[in-house]
Amino acid sequence: MSQNKLSSKLNTLYERAAGLYDKKKYKSSLNTIEEVLKKKPEHADSNSLKGILLLELVSQEEALKYCKKGLAKGITRSFPWRAYGIYNKKIKNYIEACKCYKRASNNDKENLALLGELSSFQFITRDFAGYLETREILLKKQPQKRGNWYAFALANHLTGNYDMAINAIQQYQKSNKLVSQSEIIELALFQNDIIEESGNIKKANDHLDKIFTVITNKLLWKEKKARYFLKLGNKQRAEKMYYLLLEQNPDQIEYIKGLEISKGLLNNNEKIEELDSDRLVKLQNFYQELNDKYPQSLLIKKKQLEIAFDQDFKNKFISFIIPQLKKGIPSIFSNLLSLYRPSKVEKVSKKILIIQETLIEFQKHLESRQFELIKDEELKKNVMLLEESRASLLWIYFYLAQHYDRLEKYTLSFEYLDKAIEHTPTLVDLYNFKGRLFKHVGDTEEASRFLEKSRNLDLADRHINNLSAKYLLRNDNITRGSDTFNIFMTDLHNFPNWRYFEVSWMTNEVGSSYLRKEDYPKALKMFNQTINNFHAYFDNQFNYHSFCLREGNLRTLAKLIKFTDQVFTHQFFWVGARGALEIYLNLHDKGKEFRKELIKQCEIEEKDLQIKLDKELSNPKLDDDEKKLREDDDLVGKKLIAKENPLKEAVKIIEILEKQAPDYIETHLLALKVYTKMGNFENALNSINKILEFNSNDFQFHKLLMEFFLKVENNKKMTDKVNNLKKRLEINSLSEYNQQFLQKNISIIEHRVTAAEVMLLLEEDKDKAIEIMMEVDDLTYENKRLINTCTNVFLKLQKIDETIANQYREKYSAKFKYSTIFNPQIIQVRKQKKLEKEEEEKKKRQQQQKEKEEKENEEKVEKEIKKEEN
């Protein structure tokens, strides 16, 4: 009997094992397949099945061994290739998985389920040509299934075969009875999207007219119509359509922009400052007309403020701000943030001063309440309007507090915020902002205290609860931060399962806190969780692909492609990736002995946690699903830390970034750092070439480039390529190039500091380098706030020379008087006050206890006297 043929009895066992695997009963399935392998150890399908079972139960290494064995014994069979595809899917190697499913399908051409799975992999790997080929086969095999028609139309659309895609939809509509109105609408709109994407806007416009009666969402129809008119150059009709849209929603920015273009007032991406006086007047008149027609529109009023200047701006600002202050709108400042963008144009930057002077004038008169002394009738009228609402002064205080915070004038910001709190001590927004203000000035402890105070004022608000949790974590209070967050996340017998719900910002904050404490295992575990979350978002395409085809949501599926192509560019993923990379690089630098010591510490901690977890899992009230949520095979991150080569793990993250976010300079900066560290100079050179396409003057790049040159100089294989690079960058010597970089960016703090760091790398004048790093006054900076830039400089100086770092801190302690880094005595004073308060409360409690005891004794004596008298 052939090694791949089973007896009837063994075949029954094999079928049972396969059925148990499909039902996700992996342990039972493994026990069953082991019986088959005892009798037929070389059976290809059984070895492959064991491989994918071990993948779920044991480890990837063991799984791979059996998957490869199954493949070797049955290379012409279908299942071993499918199993190997499942293995590759598990390790996120989708391209290889796709190849495996292709081979599996070639070995079993009649297996339609296998073709369906193959098409999902082709969809995810963006192999649209292969996807089209597979979906065409499925359509020919099963033309009665509408999902196959949908997929075939989508495949043609994705490959640019627009006419064939439209033809497929039309054929389906002729040969099949559409089951619902929603399906008719979806196909009509998808067909219109295809025509638009093909570039034939006139045809798309004509088609849109034909389907007018079909489309129930008339707003969407009008939006498309306006866009088509604009693309066709029919600006008059586009203008008319955008006015119709504004009637429905005058606060939609896209409609406003459409009108600007259709009326020839402003082109795409054209700045207000670039307009000549005539065009500016026309634009101002246009917005005045809109404001007269739609007086309730906040957006139109904001746009008016953006294009008004000097006295005209002041008048419009007053008419905008007074109703907002009277109503008590907390978001007034955030609504006007666009006015605070830095500008080199004087009349634009002057707006901030006008706002400041206007509000301070209102404040002065509302505080004095001597309205009869106001000589300016217009000013008096405005002040009296504000006086109608007792809350006006509160919101002026609040606005000015945010205003001065934005200008980094923190003392004034605190003054106005304290006035607001004194005016209305129960307003949650004030404590929220005070927490943010303390964060901005560098005092995380006070920031978390005020957010906690805000939370206690409104315990039912999830957003404030989350903010409080975030600020507690940024103050490195991990236990309280997690407990606070879990208030709204407890479920399944009070199990706080925020990791299960893929809350990436939370895992990032916890990870960052552990990283600041240099608890690398736990930090890496959290950042790894974030990375896994985004893989899960990406993997959801498997489910959504089949779901959307089944439900006929073709437009949603097309949008899904655009979303998932960008998912790894989300800021939460970047935080997790940066954190994990920093840890891997630190682990590499600190060496094997350091990692061994970490593993020992992990084993001690893990032992106690495992006992606690086992006790929890033994709770009879928990069902299997609840137990699964609590299970954790790496309680403290030991497995991640124990990886043999940290740089190899770092490269895995870099490969994700290079594939998913190649259009971001940070991808290549991180790649250059890792490749240089591991001595992979070819890849490092590729990263350099890509960075040069973005910005050769980036301060992070400058230092990494110098480190690359220093490390590669003894590598003879790279000599010619390195020399070519130096020639391209006109580098005669590293020292000279660094001085040129310094002179070119002499007024920017980050660039100056980088040049100084390179001087230290090149072992040049240390005193001169430190002198460059110490200077801050009258310089610009790329960070959002000066204090963040200077904090980074201080931390760098600490690594160079503790004494110099302390001098830097002392030099700028007055400038950043609220920062606990620049003024560590703040924490000491706070601790002392806390101890004094505790001591005072202790004495008070003792005094109360003493008085209580004395009173009880007196009462006892009185009772005794009364008893004797009786």
Automatic annotation (TrEMBL):
Biased composition (Basic and acidic residues): 835-870
Keywords of the record: Repeat, TPR repeat
Coiled coil: none
InterPro entries referenced in this protein's UniProt entry, alphabetically: NatA_aux_su (IPR021183), TPR-like_helical_dom_sf (IPR011990), TPR_rpt (IPR019734)
Region span, Disordered: 833-870
Pfam family, one: NatA_aux_su
GO CC terms in record: cytoplasm
UniProt repeat feature TPR, residue ranges: 665-698
Protein name: N(Alpha)-acetyltransferase 15/16 isoform a
